């Protein structure tokens, strides 16, 4: 069996962008470009792009600062929230350090309450995210995007015109399209690349601050993967897994590794580290740019929405398109919304799609790697 791990140079540019993310942000700061720290996929990235600012993700993914966070926050809280707060408090995260403004959204209870304390370390703007995708919800989200624009204008002394927003929409749509076309290579059977490498590319693009250059880079990596695939013809068939649930990154990449070390391959990421952020474009034909942004972003199928039909719709489509054999739902400890939603996801995957389903609860420590491997091996064995 030959997979792309024997050709690491194909993905090296993106892996390196990830490793050197701190340096890239420092360079941005040296050029006096404003930096906006963000926490969530609901953040309308086009607004930052429209004013020429860079965005960095502050969703921390290591347990390094959790003990410090637990001095202020309850222990029984999602590790993502504790870690994010801990990095802000200890100033150990250069992304947080370099952020001129932090933008959060009223998603889950833990996150929105955490922002109240985060204000002690940085200027924080909180967007009021509705809990459902109702008509009223879309109106509120549109007005919140306009309020964000006004905050950015005031804080950075800039004017953001509708033309600026329109241009940013086109740039971000091109980036999404290119990313989607790249990871859709995993629809091939046998698959041409491991999920671990797809993930390297997806996360590597977040550290490319020249957003216009991203489509070309993605096209190049796609061509290289395809060329190898056609040349080698040695790729073997493996059980195909779709990952859903909480966002993955850093410490939780252990889940992708456990799946692939035990003989399967992750062919699709439905969570916020993948398709949730990418699949739906902003409607460029809508003359009301704020309505177009509100629609794209509020449609994201996060478990903070009630009900949350868009997660099911995306799972339905992706399970078919990627010829998925099994679904793994990763829940971070104490994430109540995703944890409660596991039942409906399990029912949908088992009963409607007639596929295998497994949910795993984990945190940012590595203490459960052995147990993860045992459970994955058993799950994959029965696929
Ligand atoms: S759009 S998934 S990035 S909220 S894991 S902090 S929900 S308790 S991260 Fe998320 Fe936006 Fe939704 Fe995506 Fe709360 Fe759950 Fe923790 Fe979470």
From TrEMBL:
<dbReference type="InterPro" id="IPR047678">
    <property type="entry name" value="YjiM-like"/>
</dbReference>
<dbReference type="GO" id="GO:0016836">
    <property type="term" value="F:hydro-lyase activity"/>
</dbReference>
<comment type="similarity">
    <text>Belongs to the FldB/FldC dehydratase alpha/beta subunit family.</text>
</comment>
<dbReference type="Pfam" id="PF06050">
    <property type="entry name" value="HGD-D"/>
</dbReference>
<keyword id="KW-0408">Iron</keyword>
<dbReference type="InterPro" id="IPR010327">
    <property type="entry name" value="FldB/FldC_alpha/beta"/>
</dbReference>
<protein>
    <submittedName>
        <fullName>2-hydroxyacyl-CoA dehydratase</fullName>
    </submittedName>
</protein>
<keyword id="KW-0479">Metal-binding</keyword>
<dbReference type="GO" id="GO:0051536">
    <property type="term" value="F:iron-sulfur cluster binding"/>
</dbReference>
<keyword id="KW-0411">Iron-sulfur</keyword>
């Amino acid at each position: 069996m030959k997979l792309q791990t024997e050709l690491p140079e194909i993905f090296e540019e993106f892996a390196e962008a990830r490793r050197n993310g701190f340096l890239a942000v420092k360079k941005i700061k040296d050029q006096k470009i404003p930096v906006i720290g963000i926490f969530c996929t609901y953040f309308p990235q086009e607004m930052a792009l429209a004013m020429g600012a860079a965005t960095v993700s502050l969703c921390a993914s290591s347990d390094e600062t959790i003990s410090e966070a637990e001095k202020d926050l309850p222990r029984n809280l999602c590790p993502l929230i504790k870690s994010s707060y801990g990095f802000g408090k200890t100033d150990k995260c250069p992304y947080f350090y370099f952020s001129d403004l932090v933008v959060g959204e009223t998603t889950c209870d833990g996150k929105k309450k955490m922002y109240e304390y985060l204000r002690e370390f940085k200027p924080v703007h909180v967007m009021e995210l509705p809990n459902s995708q109702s008509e009223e919800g879309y109106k509120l989200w549109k007005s919140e995007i306009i309020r964000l624009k006004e905050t950015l204008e005031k804080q950075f002394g800039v004017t953001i015109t509708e033309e600026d927003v329109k241009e940013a929409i086109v740039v971000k749509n091109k980036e999404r399209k290119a990313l989607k076309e790249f990871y859709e290579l995993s629809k091939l059977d046998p698959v041409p690349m491991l999920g671990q490498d797809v993930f390297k590319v997806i996360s590597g693009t977040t550290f490319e601050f020249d957003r216009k250059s991203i489509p070309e880079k993605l096209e190049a990596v796609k061509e290289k993967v395809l060329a190898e695939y056609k040349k080698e013809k040695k790729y073997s068939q493996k059980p195909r897994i779709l990952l859903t649930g909480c966002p993955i990154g850093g410490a939780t990449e252990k889940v992708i590794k456990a799946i692939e070390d035990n003989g399967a391959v992750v062919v699709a990421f439905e969570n916020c580290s993948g398709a949730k952020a990418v699949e739906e474009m902003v409607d460029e034909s809508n003359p009301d740019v704020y309505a177009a942004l509100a629609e794209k972003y509020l449609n994201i199928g996060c478990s903070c929405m009630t009900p949350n039909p868009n997660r099911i719709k995306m799972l339905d489509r992706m399970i078919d398109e990627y010829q998925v054999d099994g679904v793994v739902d990763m829940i971070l400890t104490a994430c109540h919304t995703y944890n409660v939603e596991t039942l409906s996801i399990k029912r949908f995957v088992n009963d409607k799609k007639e596929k295998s389903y497994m949910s795993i609860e984990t945190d940012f420590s590595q203490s459960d790697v052995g147990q993860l491997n045992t459970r994955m091996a058993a799950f994959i064995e029965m696929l």
